[in-house]
Write a structure and sequence with these properties.
Radius of gyration: 19 Å
Distance between the termini: 46 Å
Number of strands: 11
Strand content: 15-25%
Structural class: alpha/beta
Bound molecules: NADP nicotinamide-adenine-dinucleotide phosphate
Largest sheet: 7 strands, parallel
Helix content: 25-40%
Strand order of the largest sheet: 3-4-5-8-9-10-11
Length: 327
């Protein structure tokens, strides 16, 4: 496995990480035993940048990782997030500075560790200036509870303000061949500030692998409400995935490997975190780091799969911003 450095403080991670969300929510049933086997396979293959969040399965995902990493903690770079609260009353954002320490301590307890390698703000709280949230996160660094700080879905302005408060090592955004909005403003801003980029849902929530049978998506699956997976959008996107398959074959790669290699080719500061519950897919996804795409390959991808060819908006996160807890 190759390694990459994220951010101005030298956080070194495997060039391809592992997203663990699907082991607890979002994409159908998961089996803890199989998930733990997948984590072990990842660590054995050098895929040591693991991504979780306090909200994934309302704590289940962090507990699962804690179990999976018993005795292996030192072999991984563990990233978790706070700020999205999943409760019986729905999903809300809470990044009030006075709550940050308690969220961190709860994550540490669930993970069974005494320090988080990379601690992300999962969503900027619309009611809290980002400087205040990041200021509270910086205290955790000073106390030794956290090594590096990250943000998720922050605007360019929020990146600037956060980085002026404390060095930010990584910022997560949805980024893949079919969702490229951040290339306009976020990517240039992050690069100017020296912040590493961590594309989430880099396989287009599984769609870009060509292996997804959309007809079997269950009622609780996140993709059920995503316009890209519906009606005419879906039909058009399926035609494009056929092109992904064809181009991948030209590179002796799988579609998953090609779309990950495309992200890796966007810059040395890019580290995708494909998600899988299956041990047998870990090596395939990790193999993307061996595929080198030339400028000519990238130009051909751009010509065959231009950014605006894909159809449908992504599912909105707006709801997270409206349901507020009473203060
Ligand atoms: N910051 C944020 O707001 C945010 C939001 C979403 C996700 N994330 C993080 O990003 C990670 C990755 O994103 P994601 O899980 O949403 O989407 P993704 O990585 O684009 O796709 C995951 C889906 O692809 C399937 N898959 C994985 N490898 C495959 C392969 N080689 N061939 C065929 N299918 C494959 C998985 O199914 P199987 O499990 O059956 O393999 C799963 O359904 C998450 O796990 C999470 O840690 C962060």
């Amino acid at each position: 496995m190759k390694f990459r450095t994220l951010g101005p403080e030298g956080l070194t991670v495997s060039a391809v990480g592992l997203g663990c969300m699907g082991m607890s929510q979002g994409y159908g049933d998961a089996d803890d035993t199989e998930s733990i086997t997948a984590v072990h396979r990842a660590v054995d293959l050098g895929v040591t940048f693991l991504d979780t969040a306090m909200s994934y399965g309302s704590g289940h995902n962090e507990e699962l990782l804690g179990r999976a990493l018993a005795g292996r903690r030192d072999q991984v770079v563990l990233a978790t997030k706070f700020g999205i609260v999943r409760g019986e009353d729905g999903v809300r954002v809470d990044a009030r500075p006075e709550r940050v320490r308690a969220y961190c301590e709860a994550s540490l307890a669930r993970l069974g560790i005494d320090r988080i390698d990379l601690y992300y703000l999962h969503r900027v709280d619309p009611d809290v200036p980002i400087e205040e949230t990041v200021g509270a996160m910086a205290e955790l660094v000073e106390e030794g509870k956290v090594r590096y700080l990250g943000l998720s879905e922050a605007s360019p302005d929020e990146l600037e303000r956060a980085a002026a408060t404390h060095p930010i090592s990584a910022a997560q955004y949805e980024w893949s061949l079919w969702w490229r909005d951040i290339e306009d403003d976020v990517v240039p801003t992050a690069r100017r500030l020296g912040i590493g980029l961590v594309p989430y849902s880099p396989l287009g929530r599984g769609f870009l692998t060509g292996a997804l049978t959309t007809g079997t998506i269950g009622a609780s699956d996140f993709r059920r409400n995503d316009p890209r997976f519906q009606g005419e959008n879906l039909k058009r996107n399926e035609e494009l995935v056929a092109e992904v398959r064809r181009l991948a074959a030209e590179h002796d790669a799988t579609p998953a490997q090609l779309v990950l290699a495309w992200l890796l080719a966007q810059g040395d500061d890019v580290v995708p975190i494909p998600g899988t519950r299956r041990a047998d897919r870990i090596a395939e996804n990790a193999g993307a780091s061996e595929i080198v795409l030339t400028e000519a390959d990238l130009a051909r991808l751009e010509a065959v799969l231009p950014r605006d060819a894909w159809s449908g908006d992504r599912q909105s996160f707006a709801a997270y911003r409206t349901a507020r807890p009473s203060r």
